[in-house]
Design brief:
Shape: elongated
Helix content: 10-25%
Number of helices: 9
Largest sheet: 8 strands, mixed
Strand order of the largest sheet: 31-40-37-42-35-33-34-43
Oligomer: single chain
């Protein structure tokens, strides 16, 4: 057992006066240098370089280790198609402007910058967080793209989620690659005059737009990781590891470690073995490093591994041990906890500095940078190498120099997995646990297999919604399909309605639900809803809307067929329903990738009954994206119900010329108590956030 937290130093480092003077002088020198770079730009004194070029080994060495190379600031980049793109270094006090394609997005300030953008919905992309920018890097084309800059130092990153109630922003676009993520941002500690504070920035990775700026109670923040509804932060300057509740970002636990330990990497520990509030933390220690297992709830160190290298960074559990970066020695290492020691997998003969590590499909991708002074870390001309190393064959696959606009801090893949920095993951392209369903034959076969195999007395086990990332990838945990139902009566009724009947303004005789407009407009554009029954976030208080009585005769036969005849529910199925609504996806609409959250999700079953499906089925997709596995296209056929685990990420698109309408049902295995069923009158207006205490008329 390691020493208790109380035995560790927990004071803030207090630099001496000469040290403060040196830091102030260095910060002043950097500001002068940046001013000269701006002046040089104004005089058209530009140097040309190729962004994301593929240099020879000799060129790479020069770019990485020649001090002279660092002083040649680059102002113009040349794309492969020969187009020069002006780049003007942006002072940390000025927010940048970004051109994505031909559209200028101004975030504030006077500076503008054109950035060659690669859509995040294509290719295998890594994100690079550096001392000067947030970037993407395509491992196939070796091209890098500046996504965001002007907010100091960028560090840990994780994808954001969106629940149906708009808990926090959505994480991905229609093709499943993430485009919204939280990234840690903090001031450069070499610039003591910076007005910036430690924050979590919600950034649209496709547009380079800052969506949200969330201040955090942390100093000199390094790592930030997410596991489900937990966010863990390395509060390096405060000498703590924090656990936050997601999405509220409320601090739940704060374990004291000590400033001298310099915690820089967080790895959520195995829940079954150690519990929900336990993490591994890499303690840099400004020298011989340690890997400690911390119970955040109790504030105690449970285990200590003290043979993990020097000034170490990064930690990914792998084959009963850990892959780490022995940064002080320029080594990629494997730590064996059984013997509390490590062996070297790869070493850079130049003894360079290493930060940033992910393991994807048994390949370690990590960052290698030249040693330099602390004030040089924010130098916009700085480069770093990205190395791909095969952990199975023990061979280096490639090494690429990238203009990182500052020291490379973190490498991640939030587009494919929230656990990308703390778990060995997969691109998902060769995973056969759940086959991708893409052709009509595949869809027909799944339908036939489901009908033949299912005994029609089961549904998804609700325990699979508690921790969907560990619930397994079986179809029974994610998607179940049922026998076709006759929906023609409901179809005929809908066909008699005016075309705009599902628009909010046309539902004057229904009740209205407020508090969700912003979420619908941002993440479900051009999607309409007709609510028949709705609940509060917990799912306990339910409200029957007036339009239920208008559609009851057409919907009841559908409920009876599915829940009585197929699932064997005795009595009136309506008594079990907590939410019932018609979701209308108009032509050209999409429901962005999201994970539903709340008690109404984990304690109840979500069913879909397709009422209208466009004849051009290739233009309509309903996609589920389980963590670390290939996506699954849900077969959509009119009248064929299915249940989904809506705690797994999913998204929907309708690029057809006609609308797509589903009947959505959230179902309680038990009868909803009558005292928790409330009737609404036409014109009643309810605030979603207050439904647990009644409807506000």
């Amino acid at each position: 057992r390691g020493p208790s937290m109380a035995s560790r130093s927990s004071y803030m480092l207090s630099p001496s006066a000469p040290s403060r003077r040196r830091r102030a002088s260095a910060a002043q020198a950097m500001r002068i240098r940046r001013a000269l770079m701006w002046a040089c730009t104004a005089l058209a004194c530009v140097a040309t370089y190729r962004v994301s070029s593929q240099p020879s080994a000799a060129d790479s060495t020069l770019a990485m280790f020649d001090d002279g190379a660092k002083s040649s600031a680059a102002f113009t980049s040349r794309r492969d198609d020969g187009v020069d793109v002006m780049r003007r270094p942006t002072p940390s006090l000025v927010s940048s402007s970004i051109v994505v394609g031909d559209a200028l997005v101004r975030e504030g300030g006077d500076a503008e910058r054109k950035v060659v953008s690669t859509p995040t919905s294509r290719g295998r992309l890594l994100t690079l967080s550096t001392h000067g920018a947030l970037m993407t890097f395509d491992i196939d084309t070796k091209k890098s793209t500046v996504v965001h800059e002007g907010r100091g130092v960028y560090y840990g990153i994780f994808p954001a989620d969106v629940g149906e109630e708009g808990d926090v922003a959505a994480s991905t676009g229609p093709h499943g690659n993430g485009h919204l993520a939280y990234v840690a941002s903090r001031p450069d500690n070499a610039d003591i005059t910076s007005p910036l504070t430690d924050s979590l920035l919600l950034i649209d990775l496709e547009k380079g737009v800052l969506v949200r700026d969330l201040k955090i109670d942390s100093k000199f923040t390094h790592d930030v990781v997410k596991r489900g509804s937990q966010v863990f932060i390395a509060d390096t300057g405060g000498g703590r590891v924090l656990e936050l509740e997601y999405p509220s970002m409320r601090v739940v636990f704060a374990a004291e470690i000590g400033v001298r330990q310099h915690v820089n990497t967080i790895v959520p520990a195995n829940v079954e073995e150690y519990g929900m509030h336990t993490v591994w933390a890499v303690l840099h220690n400004l020298g011989p490093s340690m890997l400690v297992l911390i119970d955040l709830e109790k504030g105690k160190v449970l285990k200590t591994l003290d043979k993990v290298g020097s000034k170490s960074h990064g930690c990914v559990p792998y084959k009963n041990g850990f892959i780490m970066l022995n940064s002080g020695e320029g080594q990629l290492i494997y730590v064996n906890p059984e013997i509390n020691d490590f062996h070297v997998l790869w070493i850079d003969p130049s003894n360079t500095f290493m930060k940033g590590l992910v393991v994807i499909d048994d390949i370690a991708y990590f960052g290698v940078s030249a040693f330099g002074k602390r004030w040089e870390r924010g130098d916009p001309s700085k480069t770093s190498d990205i190395v791909a190393f095969d952990l199975v064959s023990r061979t280096m696959l490639w090494r690429e120099t990238v203009q990182t606009l500052g020291l490379l801090n973190t490498i991640a893949a939030p587009m494919i997995d929230e656990a990308s920095t703390w778990k060995a993951i997969s691109w998902g392209m060769d995973d056969s646990a759940i086959p991708a369903i893409t052709t009509e034959n595949d869809k027909s076969q799944l339908l036939q297999d489901t009908v033949n195999d299912k005994d029609f007395s089961n549904w998804i086990d609700l325990s699979a919604k508690e921790r969907p990332e560990s619930s397994g990838l079986s179809r029974q945990n994610m998607l179940l399909m049922y026998k076709p139902i006759d929906v023609r009566d409901l179809q005929n009724f809908i066909n008699t309605l005016p075309r705009d009947a599902f628009k909010a303004y046309a539902q004057e005789k229904n009740a209205k639900l407020g508090g969700r407009t912003d979420n619908m407009e941002q993440f479900k554009p051009n999607v309409d809803t007709m609510i028949l029954v709705f609940s509060d976030r917990s799912g306990k208080e339910t409200y029957v809307f007036p339009y239920w009585h208008k559609l009851k005769r057409y919907v009841t036969p559908i409920l009876t067929d599915l829940f009585d005849k197929q699932l064997g529910i005795q009595g009136d199925p309506f008594a079990h329903i907590i939410r019932l609504q018609l979701a209308v996806m108009n032509p050209g609409s999409e429901i962005k990738r999201h994970v539903d959250r709340g008690g109404w999700v984990k304690n109840y079953h979500r069913f879909h009954v397709p009422i209208f499906v466009p004849s051009d089925q290739d233009a309509t997709e309903f996609v589920m994206s389980p963590m670390g596995a290939s996506r699954v296209n849900v077969p959509l056929s009119e009248g064929v119900p299915f249940e989904i685990n809506n705690a797994i990420a999913h998204w929907v698109t309708n690029f057809a010329q006609s609308w797509r309408i589903h009947l959505l049902i959230d179902f309680d295995e038990e009868i909803v108590p009558p005292e928790r069923r409330h009737a609404l009158e036409p014109g009643d207006v309810c605030d979603y956030s207050k439904l647990d205490s009644g409807c506000i008329s």
